[in-house]
Each structure stands twice: as C-alpha cells, then as structure tokens.
Design goal:
Elements (H helix, E strand, L loop, with lengths): L7 H9 L37 H19 L2 H5 L2 H34 L8
Helix pairs in contact: 1-4, 2-4
The structure holds zinc ion.
Length: about 120
C-alpha cells in the first residue's frame, strides 16, 4: 500500500473536508487544529505530516485576495470612518481567517500525504 501512487487532488479534497487523506473516512482533527495522531478509521499515521506555518500562510494569502482586496474596491470603504471600519472589518476578517484555517490545514496535510513529504521523525 505504501508504494502506491497518491493523487494530489484526492489528498487536497479529503484534507479540505478535514478527513484522513489516506482513506477519506476518519476525521483528521480531534479539536480545532489538533491532528489525530492515527486515523480512527484506517489507522494511518496522520501525525507524521509537519504542516508547520504553511496553513496560516496560505490562509492569510487566501483571505487577503478573496476578502480584503475585494473590500478595497467598495467605494464606501474609502469614505467610512476608521473606527467604523475597524469595528466592522477586524472581526469579519478574523472570523473568516479562523474559519478557513482548519480546512486549509487539512488541505496542506492532504498535499503532504500525496507528495510523501518527509515525516516529522525523518527531519
Ligand atoms: Zn484513514
């Protein structure tokens, strides 16, 4: 099983669904961002993938391009008071960022599974 080719799309899809990239059945996280060391369905060692800083990096990149940049195109943004913008937009951007983070972390782990990145033990 270990030598079989692994699809990047399958790994990304399963990770985005916060499922084990190896089987797609077991949950990947046991909390908000804590990775289950072993898949409850197939026993795959999901704790070996060192996602490190990639999930926050990609999440900030996505939020910046999908939320912040389009907001700058809204004319109201340039006329509203700074305090109003801070009160409205900081919680919005924080909520979107924190909401996306587990899905992006799942996708990163799914990509690492498909690419067979070096494990934490091998580093
Ligand atoms: Zn599994």
């Amino acid at each position: 099983m270990d030598g079989e080719p692994r699809s990047l799309l399958v790994g990304l899809k399963r990770g985005l669904m916060r499922r084990c990239p190896a089987c797609g059945g077991g949950r990947l996280f046991r909390g908000y961002l804590t990775v289950e060391d072993h898949c409850p369905a197939c026993g795959h060692d999901n704790g070996q993938y060192p996602a490190d800083d990639a999930p926050p990096y990609f999440t900030i990149f996505l939020v910046g391009h999908l939320v912040v940049a389009p907001l700058l195109a809204v004319a109201m943004i340039w006329r509203a008071s700074t305090v109003l913008l801070l009160v409205l937009l900081v919680p919005l951007v924080a909520a979107v960022t924190l909401g996306m983070l587990p899905y992006v972390k799942g996708a990163v782990i799914g990509a690492q599974w498909s690419l067979r990145t070096p494990t934490k033990a091998a580093r």
